[in-house]
Design brief:
Helices cover 33% and strands 20% of the residues. It has 258 residues and is an alpha+beta fold. It folds into 3 domains: 4-75, Orthogonal Bundle (434 Repressor (Amino-terminal Domain)), CATH 1.10.260.40; 109-145; 168-249. It has a 5-stranded antiparallel sheet, with no helix packed on it. The chain has helices at 4-14, 19-26, 30-38, 47-61, 65-75, 90-98, 108-129; strands spanning 168-174, 178-184, 189-196, 204-207, 210-214, 219-223, 226-229, 237-242, 245-249.
Amino acid sequence: MTDIGQTLREARMRAKIDINDVETATKIRAKYLRALENEEWNLLPGPTFVKSFLRTYAQYLGLDARLLVEEYKRRFERPADDGPPLAPSLRDRDRERRGVPTPPLVSSRVLAIGGVVVVILAALWLIGHFPGGGNGKNNTQANTPTTTTPPAATTKRKKPAAATPALASLRLVPTGPVYVCLIDDKGNKRIPGQTITPTTPQRTYHAKRFLMTVGNSQLSMRVNGKTLAVAPSTGATNYVITPTGRHTRPAGQGPNCG
């Protein structure tokens, strides 16, 4: 597919949106938006933020956010490293400087086993030195205390909420001859009441709102990244299309392309 950054930049420039307006709407800093468009992933905080910012920016521009995130994961995401080794302590560094070998570290498991052994030996000593103990008549079972280590608390990082796109995106896909009247929120007639066919060149339109009338159901449309069909009807169907989706309007409330 086209490069991720190029796809974002071209969509923004087609919609004539300044990057500072995107920053205001999405709450993503402009330098991070430019890093996404230039695919400078090393300038972003990390893979989690890259995917979150990419998803939010794509939705704002009316692009398929899931497809762009999957493309980033396929091309750039790598398994996480195990992390840097622990730094040696001051005492260990001093031993190395003086040429004294560093004693091997004792694991917590060995220390725990040693503690249990000490407790058992102490219990046996008490049984043998107090009355009633060690004569073979009373069998006393030593209860070995066990300790459990609570799991380390995990901190879940909240993902930034997806911002609502400022513009609606619309692309028409006729499957047969169909009458279309399409007007944007500024009154511009994007399709001034004409019959389009599968051979008619089509493009993606962007605006804050569209009013549209279609003459029949021989048409599907791509609204904000989702493909929607037109329900069969005995007459024309009116729609209003916004960044939040597509809604039908009653007869007589469609656009006027006359």
